[in-house]
Every structure is written in structure tokens, then in C-alpha cells.
Amino acid sequence: MAPLFTARIQLLLLQAMGFLIGLIGQAARAFGGPKFGSMTTPPVTEPLLLLSGVQLAKLIRQRKVKCIDVVQAYINRIVEVNPLINGIVKYRFEAAKKEAHAVDKKLAEKQEDDATLEKKWPFLGVPLTVKEAFQLQGMPNSSGLVNRRNTISKTDATVVAFLKEAGAIPLGMTNCSELCMWYESSNKIYGRSNNPYDLRHIVGGSSGGEGCTLAAACSVIGVGSDIGGSIRMPAFFNGIFGHKPSPGVVSNNGQFPQARGAQELFQCTGPMCRYAEDLAPMLRVMAGPGIKKLRLDEKVHLKDLKFYWMEHDGGSFLMSKVDQDLILAQKKVVDHLQNMLGASVQHVKLKQMKYSFQLWVTMMTAKGHDGKEPVKFVDLLSDHGKPVNPLWELIKWCLGLSVHTIPVIGLALLEGKFKYNNEKYKKFKAMEESLHKELVEMLGDDGVFLYPSHPTVAPKHHVPLTRPFNFAYTGIFSALGLPVTQCPLGLNAKGLPLGIQVVAGPFNDHLTLAVAQYMEKTFGGWICPGKL
């Protein structure tokens, strides 16, 4: 049997298995799942919750608002809303209030001017939430893996330390998919997170708890990680902003699982937030010394940029067709840039995008520069060195006895199937290099590429099992190592967020961040779920 035909049969079988499991999950939700009185979260009534991190920090520095009032307002919102969305899985309220009082005391005792305080502490007193996969001293760091449920961080991840040094106050840890390996945030320790725009829908993954927490106004800035879209998919599904930086700019130290092999080159840590003006200041803090690789202070004249766009991947048989709502939203952006801004806008067809999933797999399974192979997924599941048999886990799952989620079991079963032989690896590696070269030359230092974030808006719970490859719309840019900002574009007729990815050439993050601010101003940015 031809290798390509065999591969297609395997993929179709995986999709069929996912479809059946998805139907079971949807039936379980219909007959035994949680029932909600309303499909959205309650409206925001506290004005402090509707300010950006930059605005809050300024008010606190200027002593116009007390830090404790800001922190308490967010705690009140979390207590009200988190039981519905299950975004924050570990609270840090008492420590946060103590730190807020310390900020107010410091400001009362010191009479430094606003400029001096901003330079020292750009996020002084600003509430922060952190993906549970990152270390935050005294907080759990399990990544949803049951055998790590008692793992407590003794120190802070590098980016968390930088944000705390900048004055941010962590309120808690947010949910993720098991081992950060799926685009629905659910695990056997903390359960499932729900979309604040419709609780029946997913929040994305793996930084999904962060996405829904920010969207529901339970936090204002957050930390996420991304190796295949784990910042951008949750940002898209929850109608907020998220940025995957150029690789090597922000430290990945202090998160679990830690990437190895070629994955080290493509794993990125980045900011997530409701307001575009927080992206660049957050990135500047999170990057630390790595910020020298970027040109965030360079003025961007949007009219002089070259905009390129594609409305779909070219028709891969693995992925869903792009929703008409998303195509129309993108066309609205394109028309505005061309007719109102007067910018250069060009439609392009990049043929290799059709193979996005294959290119992502090729890069993610490759050896690193040090010759090391990526960590085997099945090894990550091991229980304190005791090997796990994925087939046995699947049987246990069917009996309701497994401590693992079905996506993780499926990935463990199939990870070997997606490692290409030498001939296929060379083919897809050459294709990736060709696409990278074409994009980098096209974009240069003054171009951005507009591309769908996902083929559909946030699907209902369990549906990703029937569409396992749709993540490749974001995954391709991880494989290519390009900076991407996810931007919201309003809501569809059913009240679910629309959005788009803005991509630039290597280390041209300042271009995508500038476009994000313009899009927020033009198309409205984050929209509060529930009426204000």
C-alpha cells in the first residue's frame, strides 16, 4: 500500500475515532453536563475593570486610585464569575491583598514623580494571572497532569519574576489542557474551562484558562505560552489580544513541560490582554534583556506598510473550510486598509500553506541544534518513572478509570505515526524552508500578512475531537518562527468572537503590535460578554 494512502487512512481513522468520542461527549453534555441559567457571564458593573493595565498603573502611581481597591474589585469579579468559566484554578487572594496594601503604603511614604515610578514599576499594582504551566512561587505547577498535582513551585518562572519586579500582582493560576497539548482546556485535576460568550463553547488551549479569565474581566493582563497556537487560539476564541513573539526574545524558563529538540526553537512565551496598548509594555517587561532584539520604540507609519492576505490555506483535506463569517470579517479589514487607510493591499496564494499540519509536524519532531530528540509524549505521561501504556489507558478511559484526558491518550498512541521517514522529512523540510524564504522576502521589514486564526469560531465542547487538525492555522507560524499578534474583530450573529492573525517577518514584532492598536481603534477590540 502506498505510504501516502496509508497515512491518509490513519488520519481518517483518527478523525473517525474523534468524531465518535465527540458524539459521546456531546451526548454526555446534553444529558448529564452542567446546566447554566445564562449562556454568558454577568455584565461588568465596576468601572475599574474596564481600564487597561497601563491606565490602571498610571492611576495607582498618581495616587488617584488605591491599589487595594483595584485588587479587591478584581477579586469580587472572580468570585462572581469564575464558578461559571472555571478559568482560575488556584486563588492567591490573601497574598495579593497584602501586596496591594504594601503598594499603597509605599506610595504614601515616597513622593517620587510619575515618570520615575513608571520607569521602576511600569505595572505597579496591576492584577495579573498566570497560566498554571508556569512556576509561581507557592502555587501549583502541574500542567493538568494528575501525577504532578502536588508539585508546588519553589521559585518564579523568569517572565513571572520580571512582571512581579515591574509591580504586577498575581491573583492566581489559570487552567490549561493536560500537558498543554490540546486546544480545549480541560484536565483531570481542574476540570474544563468555559467560554464567557457562551458557556457551551470552548476557550481554546492550551492557554485557555487565561483567555477566558481575561475576556470575562477577571484579570487585565496574563501570561501564556505558544508552540502551535496556545496563545493565539484562546485569544481568538475569547475575543482578546495575544502575541506570539519572535523566537528567542522571551525566556521560556520555568514552565512545564519544557521543550526539547527543535521544539526549543519554536516554543514562545508571550502576553495576553484585553487592551492592545498593554501588549508592547508587557512584552518589554517579559523579554528583559531579550528586548534588544526588537525595535519596539520604532515609529510605525501604517499607511506605508504593505499588507498581504489569504482567506484560507488553499484547501487541505485535513482541515475544515473557513467560516463565511471569518472570511467576511477579514474582507472588511482588507477593504478598510485599502479604501480608508490608503495602504498597499495584495491578495496572495502561498501553495505550501495547504500542508501546514505536515510542516508543523516536521519541525516539531526534528532534532535540535544540539542533536537532542524532542521528549516523547508518552514519557511525559509516566508516573514518577513508571511507564504508561497508551492502549491500556484508552481501555481504562472507556471504563471511566483513566487519570488522563482522551486527547492526551490519543496523542500518545499516535505520536509515532506522525514522525515522517527520512524521505518525507526531507520533502517537508524543504517545503518549510521554501515557504519561510518566500514569506520573509515578501514581508521584508515593512510588510504584514493577514491570515485566519482558525477555520471556525469557538466550537462547542468536545467538537475539537472531530476536527483535530484545525490548529494548523496557527501552528504553521510556530513552525516558521514568525511573530504573530491575534486581534479581535467583533462578534458574529451568535455572539461569538471573530478575529484575525497579523504576521510579520522575524523580529518585526513592532509592526504587528502597531496594527493591533489600529485594529482595536477601528473595529472595537474586546467586547464585554454580557451587557455593560
Please describe what this structure looks like:
Belongs to the amidase family. The chain is α/β, with parallel strands linked by helices and 532 residues long. The chain has helices at residues 3-32, 53-61, 67-85, 93-109, 114-120, 158-165, 208-215, 232-237, 263-266, 279-287, 324-341, 356-364, 377-380, 390-398, 406-414, 422-443, 472-480, 509-523, and strands at residues 88-91, 127-131, 169-174, 186-187, 191-192, 221-226, 241-244, 268-273, 306-309, 344-347, 447-451, 484-491, 497-504. It is globular.
Can you tell me the residue ranges where pLDDT is under 50 for at least 5 consecutive residues?
1-13, 26-32
- Radius of gyration, in Å, reads 22 Å
CATH class: Alpha Beta
The CATH architecture designation is Alpha-Beta Complex
Q: In percent, how much strand structure appears in the residues?
A: 5-15%
**Helical fraction:** 25-40%
**Domain tally:** 1
- The whole-number mean of residue pLDDT values reads 93
Order of strands in the sheet with most strands = 1-3-2-6-8-7-12-13-11-9-10
Biggest beta sheet summary: 11 strands, mixed
Separate helix tally: 18
Tell me the distance between the termini: 60 Å
Secondary structure category: alpha/beta
CATH topology name, in short, is Amidase signature (AS) enzymes
Structure summary, number of beta strands: 13
**Silhouette:** globular
Q: What name goes with the CATH superfamily?
A: Amidase signature (AS) domain
